[in-house]
């Protein structure tokens, strides 16, 4: 009975889903049998096609033989379905041993993770060939029927393939972070610097993530600077003493105690 039900659902979806074939520059449209000289060239070409057609793509694995990739699969980013509950719960409990029920509830942080995967079957596969010593890749299969709408033209700049944090972005965010300027203000300054949101080249979330990583690195630098100062004071002052304790992962100072010769007199 269950097999019949699954079959009926498949048939229903096949006829109800309205497939979309994206409109793009004819020079970027791929076709079965198209030849590429290298693995890098074929992936790059499909990514350009995806950006022009306004959808995100991702590599979906490959098959190798003798150290050579003989099959490479690239699919729409909305391929498949998430196998886990999209309402993922991220829980962090206070380190204190005894907490009341109310305290425990407030210390839990719930994060809702959405999903845009909708079982899209669009994608492409490349196959390796070697003929008389000439090695190349051909488009083995190409499915450009998407079961979802393409990204709106006004939102094209937010697509993953159109976003990048280069050295200029990183240096700008680092300077703002050191000056205690928040991500939102940093993003607005980037907009003014580049001349508009359309040409910033990243999103507010990209700036937030970059700022977060920079803060983590600065913490490590600050800790090392402090320990260097303690070591230098001990070198120039025989009566100086310090002791510190690191966390189990050795990334944070849990405690730091010091006193100098003058303090010992008291």
- Proportion in β-strands: 15-25%
For the termini, the CA-CA separation is 87 Å
Question: Major sheet: size, sense and barrel closure?
Answer: 5 strands, antiparallel
Number of strands: 7
The H-and-E topology, N to C, reads as HEHEEHEEHHHEEH
Ranges where pLDDT stays below 50 over 5 or more residues in a row are 11-16, 86-110
Query: Mind telling me the C-alpha Rg?
Result: 28 Å
Alpha plus pi helix count: 7
Helix content: 25-40%
Secondary-structure content class: alpha+beta
Explain what you see.
- The protein is of the alpha+beta class and 266 residues long.
- Among the domains are: 12-80 and 121-162, no CATH class; 82-116, no CATH class; 226-265, no CATH class.
- It contains seven helices and seven strands.
- It has helices spanning 2-16, 39-53, 101-106, 167-178, 183-194, 204-236, 261-265; strands at 35-36, 57-65, 68-76, 123-131, 134-143, 241-246, 253-259.
- A five-stranded antiparallel sheet has the order 1-5-4-3-2, with helices on one face. It has a two-stranded antiparallel ribbon with strand order 6-7.
- The longest helix has 33 residues, at 204-236.
- It is elongated.
Short descriptors:
7 strands, 266 residues, two-stranded antiparallel sheet, single chain, alpha+beta, 37% helix
